[in-house]
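Re: Re: token formats

Sure, here are both.
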Amino acid sequence: MKKMIAKPFLKWAGGKSQIIDRIRKMLPAETVGRNFAYIEPFVGGGAVLFWMLENFPNMERVVINDVNTDLINSYKTIKYNVDELIFLLKEWEAEYHKMSDDQKSKKEYYYSKRSLFNLRTSNQTAQTALLIFLNRTCFNGLYRVNRKNEFNVPIGSYKRPQICNEPNLRAVREVLKKVEILNLDFAETLNYAEENTFFYFDPPYKPLSQTSSFNAYAKDEFGDEEQIQLKQFCDTLNILGHKWMLSNSDVRGKDKNNHFFDELYEDYHIARIEARRNINAHADKRGKLTELLIVNYANDKQFQHVLQERSVRE
């Protein structure tokens, strides 16, 4: 029986599935041979996490973190209580599909689930089931909360969405067995670093414009001050000898005079890569754009050698 490869169980704005190949090419040399620890302080949907777990069995320690408590509880639920989660999702999927031609009933059902989720009085497993249900049935699979931490995305137009992907949930549970799951400030992940640790950062992106802002993954804003604090944390890791990679938006691609990241990370290597924006209320605003991949080890001769070898192989 073919092994099921774990994939993200939530649709998450800024998911990295589409740029995994570029991330792979820019990994530090240590990931190829020696055992290492992997820490992801902003795990989000987990596309990079699941790819790393599949491709690097030599990871001795894997730590994920996110400030979004609802998201982190969903990882914990799948790790520790996937059977009950699957039971609930199957039940709700069957009920929702029965209403596929009754838009009024579907709306009532969706908004009752959204209200229940926002009360946050259910147990952790039920809250996770509600989160996955909303993610699968809301507009464009978007996760967004207001300053009161209330999920406020309207119902989507999917007729019979897949709400329970049991094979993937079980595959996710298997790979999470070796993963430590945290719900802390990103800077506290340093306490979990070992001698040979690689950090991958995928923070809420800096908006490309005032109207394009989407970093409402949690009730607290991640603005320029937080971006600067993150860079200072990266400086600390650099001093301590840890290698790291960071993703973010390319604000200069939108405004050639905006050098925010180019100046902030001027001491490191910045690569601009093509990506796609798939979550936008306006279809004509989805499409190709550039993003940043920033690393602190581009001058490492071993890294350059590995990059060259990979280019030749491909």
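Second one below.
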Amino acid sequence: MIGPEKMNCGISANFPKGAAALGCKDDPVEINNQADATQAADCKTIANDVVLATTAGPTIDLSGSLTEIGGSLIVKNNGLLQTFSSDSLETIGGDFQLTNVTSLTSLMFTKLSEVDSINWATLSSLPEPTFGNPGITKAKSVTVADTFVSNLDGINVQELTDMNINNNRRLSSFVTSIKTLTNAMYVTANSLNMTMEMPNLESIANMTISNVTTFSVPSLKTVNGSMRFDSNYFTEFTAVNLTKIQDGDLSFVSNPQLLNISIPNLEKVGGGVTIANNTALTKVDGLGSLEDVGGAIKMRGSFDEISLPSLNNVVGTAEFVSTEDITDSCETLEKLSGSIVQGKVTACDSDNAQANNDTSTAGGDDSNGGNGGNDDDSAASLASASLSTVFTLAALGGLVATFL
């Protein structure tokens, strides 16, 4: 007869009489209490998902021999769990998913370095996760939505497909070492004083940033999709190394404290360019190398100067409207109509009290009023979605990758 140790893949058979054996190859491995967690932690590897029951807790510790979970680690709709930890787990092959775990106050995974994705939503009591040094260095996607966290310092990923950080009201600082982001980044509605620094970011597909006080991307060279900044509180945006926005739009809309936009080496925007309702911005003079715009240009605000000295081709229309006097700028800009601006300069108006009222985005395809770039796949799609949609998707455990 086969002994219980062999039947259960090496897990100790010392569990209460009458309790079902928990096996390393169970699909999924279900944890209902700490006794189950202790048995699971005796496995070196669990091939499939590990799922905590809605009543597991208040303390679950997976410390032991367990170093790898081949599937996902899932905790959903658990209001009892307060402490969740492991000092041995290094790899999660699937999602690290925590959804609607409202009493969780301590999350400690001191050796965890690799996951397929982080997907956290509605963690209303967790002040901060604790990882080791250097923390999580490999992941494809990160979603942190509607949490109590004040920092994400242990997430030190270099390459990502998607990132979505939204509605974390205590998250006032986010510094990340990401170098490339191949799909989209969406950051919005976190702390009112949130500062965001991405010193190593060189390439990104799509970027949508809202409600941020400072934003720094000094190494950014290429945006393959769209770059959008809506309702932020920074005073300046600088990207001295950015040379092209390949297929999408560039937009700055309703950033009330913005004084300066400086992208001096930007030569191409594949979609449209929109600068609208940034009421403190008096000069548009930081796009001196911009030559080619694949969509339309729309600049509406309180400018007294608009300077685009290198502009050589605009596929769509161009509109320049200000509450102030831009007569001198218009003398130059209107000459671009029909030659440089293929769709003509439709307006260049001074002293227009309604200049800041229109905050719609310039189209990347002027013939049909399109939104520019690859909007079906870009961050722009989520920018127009309601936050309730964001939360619904996050709560279902899916990466909110329509963005963001």
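Confidence is low (pLDDT under 50) at residues 1-19, 364-404. The chain has five helices and 33 strands.
- S.
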